[in-house]
Design brief:
Layout lengths: L22 H17 L6 E4 L4 E2 L13 E5 L9 E2 L10 E5 L6 H14 L4 E6 L4 E8 L3 E4 L14 E4 L5 E4 L9 H52 L4 H8 L3 H11 L2
Parallel strand pairs: 2-4, 5-6
Antiparallel strand pairs: 1-3, 3-5, 6-7, 7-8, 9-10
Length: 264
């Protein structure tokens, strides 16, 4: 761990602002953060956080921001009380998301925060305003820094591989590279429960089919045993093995073998 050269500087872990102002904003924040966390769950060097204070400059606790969601490639997973970039090999978030609320002004999100993210080398910045059904995005270019993405509909993030969709109802939907829609916690639990129920139903169906097969085999065994028991009676009537086989619909070889067993 890198030791700070400014030990006297305190870096607050809370900016005094709530995570969200309403349930709609909270829904989007948790769904996006949770979806991205799940998307990169198997990559130990992708850190995903929601509403975590990011300090990009050592020694300056005034320059800070808490993106609603941020993704950092090249840093290990794990808990942090804040994200101090100088303690993270100098790597800042490459992708950030902001979900507007009534307390946010579009000027703050589209100018002030955009300028901060641009200045500190964020590669992709995405902004969604649920009240206005407004989806904006900016991508870093070799010249010009963060440049607005037009159009955003069906845009696929180069870093995340995630596709953006704005529904006719004005809802933001995100899709993984394999086409699965980001789900809320409740939806994810419901999906898990449905998958579990489907699995149990499939296992029950397999067990039922196996039971039916076993019963059918037992019926065939009983029928064959009855036929074999009839062979001695037909033989006692003077019928040849070929005639018995024809009457009982059995192979001649089986009839002869059975006759040999009972009359060695």
């Amino acid at each position: 761990m890198i030791t700070s050269v400014h030990p006297q500087i305190e870096y607050p872990e809370n900016d005094g602002n709530p995570l969200s102002d309403n349930t709609v904003q909270f829904h989007y924040i948790t769904t996006i953060q949770g979806g991205l966390d799940a998307l990169f769950a198997d990559d130990p060097n992708v850190f995903v956080a929601g509403d975590l204070l990011w300090y990009p400059i050592e020694g300056n606790n005034q320059v800070r921001v808490a993106p609603d969601t941020m993704v950092v490639f090249g840093r290990p997973k794990g808990d942090r009380r804040s994200y101090k970039q100088w303690e993270e090999a100098g790597i800042g978030p490459q992708v950030v998301f902001e979900i507007a609320s009534p307390s946010n002004s579009l000027k703050e999100l589209r100018q002030t925060k955009l300028a901060l993210y641009d200045r500190h080398n964020v590669e992709e910045y995405y902004l969604f305003d649920p009240d206005r059904a407004l989806l904006k995005g900016w991508q870093r270019q070799a010249v010009g820094g963060l440049v607005e993405i037009v159009p955003m509909e069906n845009w696929v993030s180069p870093r995340l591989g995630v596709r953006f969709e704005l529904t006719p109802e004005g809802e933001l939907q995100l899709y993984t590279p394999t086409g699965e829609r980001f789900a809320s916690y409740v939806e994810a639990i419901a999906q898990m429960q449905q998958e579990r129920a489907d699995k149990q139903e499939a296992l029950a169906q397999v067990a039922l089919e196996q039971e039916r097969a076993e019963r059918a085999e037992q019926e065939r065994d009983r029928a064959l045993a009855a036929q074999l028991n009839t062979i001695p009676h037909l033989a006692a009537m003077g019928l040849a093995a070929e005639n018995i086989a024809q009457i009982l619909s059995l192979p001649v070889a089986l009839v002869r073998s059975h006759l040999e067993e009972i009359n060695p």
